[in-house]
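re the bet — no i am not wrong, look at it urself. input seq straight from the record:
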Amino acid sequence: MRKRILHVVTNVAHYADPSEPTGLWLSELTHAHDLFAARGFAQRIVSPKGGLSPLEPRALKWPLLDASARAWLDDPHRMALLAATARPDEIDPADYDAIYFTGGHAVMWDFPDDEDLQRITRVVWERGGIVSAVCHGYCGLLNTRLSDGASLVAGKRITGFSWTEEVLAGVASRMPYNAEAQMKSRGALYRKAPLPFVSHVVVDGRLVTGQNPGSAKATAAAVAARL
C-alpha cells in the first residue's frame, strides 16, 4: 500500500499587529511535498480551520523564493491545494503513516493549542507512525500529550527555529513567545546547528525535526527514509 503523509499548514495571516503579514513559509511545504510525490506517497494538506493557508510574503522574494516554491506559485492546481485545505474533522489519522508540520511564524499562534491537531498527532504516533516538523512547525508539538498524559516531546531530541535565528532575522520582538525556550521547558532535548540558518535535522526514533527553512528537503528525506 502507498504510504500516506499529512501536511499541516497555518490559517494565520498576520502577527499580533494585523498590519504585519505572515503565513506559511511556502518552500517548507513544497520541498517536502515534491520529495514525497517523487517517492509515490499519497499526500493531503490540513489546517486548523480548513480552507485558505496564507503565504508569508518574505518567503516569496528573491533569494528566498527557490525553484520549488516558484513552481508551485506558477501552478494553479497546486495553489488550489492551499486554497482549500482540509479541516481536522475531515481527517482520519489512522489513514496516515506520517504527519509533517510546516512552519512560518504564523503557526506560533494557531498550532500549539489546537486540540484537533494534537489528537491527530497522538493517533499517528501511537499507531507507530512518524511525527515530523520543520522550522516553527515544532510549535505544533509543544502541547501534544499521549494517551497516558505524557508529553510527546519530553526526553526526546528535537530541533526547530532557534532564538538566535529569531534575533538575527530581526523579528524577535514580534514573537508571542520563545519557542526554543518553551520546548526546553517541556523537557525536550533541544539541539541546534553550530551556525544559524544552515540545514540541520534531528532524528530521535520516529520523531524527525528540521531547524529552519533550509532544512525542509533534508527533513523530508529523513521522513521518507523511515517510511
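see?? Residues 4-226 form a domain with the Rossmann fold fold (CATH 3.40.50.880). told u. also The radius of gyration is 16 Å. so pay up
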